[in-house]
Write a sequence for this structure.
C-alpha cells in the first residue's frame, strides 16, 4: 500500500503586483493537487461589495476602492489605489475570513497584493501558528504592463505602481519569476508542498 503523501503546508500565500499571474497559478495548483485547496483573494471579497461603493474608472469613491492618477519619477502615469473606510473594513475582514477557513482545517491558496511591509506582516502575525509557504511573484514592469493591456480589465498604470510598492523583500520563502511558463511555476511550488514529488 502506498503511503499517503500529505501537503507540507496548510496555506500557500501568493503575493505580488497585479498582472503577475497569481490567480492563474492558484487555479492551476487547485486543479493539480490531490488534496482540495480553497482559492481566495481580495477580488472575491470585493465581489461581495455593492458595485456603487467602488469606482474603478478613475472617479471618486469616498467609502470604497478607487484610483488616483499620478506619475512616477520617470514621468510614467501610475494609478494609486485609494482605500476608503468601508474598503478598509473589507481588507481587514479578508484576513478574518481566511483565518476562519484555516481554523476549520481547510487548505488555502491566497492571492494577494501586499502594498507595504505592514500589510505583509499582518498575515505573518495571523499565521504565527499555521504552516504557510510564502511565494512572491516577481516580474519586470514591462511584462506587467503588457499583461495589464492584454487582460483589458485592469486600470492602466496600476501594475506599474504596484511594481514599486509590492516588493519582493517583504519576507517570502521563495520568489518565482512570473515570466516562466506556468508548468515551471507549478513544478516549483509543487516541490515545496509535496517534497517527495508525488501527489
Amino acid at each position: 500500500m502506498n503511503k499517503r503523501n500529505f501537503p507540507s503546508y496548510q496555506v500557500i500565500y501568493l503575493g505580488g503586483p497585479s498582472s503577475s499571474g497569481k490567480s492563474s497559478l492558484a487555479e492551476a495548483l487547485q486543479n493539480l493537487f490531490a488534496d482540495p485547496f480553497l482559492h481566495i483573494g481580495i477580488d472575491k471579497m470585493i465581489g461581495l461589495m455593492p458595485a456603487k461603493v467602488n469606482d474603478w474608472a478613475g472617479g471618486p469613491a469616498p467609502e470604497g476602492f478607487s484610483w488616483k492618477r499620478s506619475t512616477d519619477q520617470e514621468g510614467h502615469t501610475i494609478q494609486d489605489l485609494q482605500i476608503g473606510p468601508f474598503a478598509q473594513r473589507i481588507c481587514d475582514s479578508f484576513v478574518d475570513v481566511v483565518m476562519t477557513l484555516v481554523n476549520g482545517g481547510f487548505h488555502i491558496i491566497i492571492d494577494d497584493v501586499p502594498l507595504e511591509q505592514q500589510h505583509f506582516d499582518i498575515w505573518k502575525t495571523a499565521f504565527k501558528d499555521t504552516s504557510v509557504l510564502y511565494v512572491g511573484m516577481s516580474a519586470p514592469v514591462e511584462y506587467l504592463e503588457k499583461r495589464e493591456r492584454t487582460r483589458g480589465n485592469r486600470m492602466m498604470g496600476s501594475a506599474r505602481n504596484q511594481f514599486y510598492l509590492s516588493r519582493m523583500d517583504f519576507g517570502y520563502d521563495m520568489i518565482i519569476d512570473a515570466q516562466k511558463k506556468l508548468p515551471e511555476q507549478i513544478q516549483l511550488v509543487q516541490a515545496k508542498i509535496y517534497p517527495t514529488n508525488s501527489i
About this structure: The helical segments are 22-32, 42-46, 85-103, 117-126, 141-151, 158-165, 182-193. Residues 11-193 form a domain with the Rossmann fold fold (CATH 3.40.50.300). Strands lie at 11-15, 37-41, 65-71, 77-83, 107-112, 132-138, 174-177. The chain has a mean pLDDT of 94.
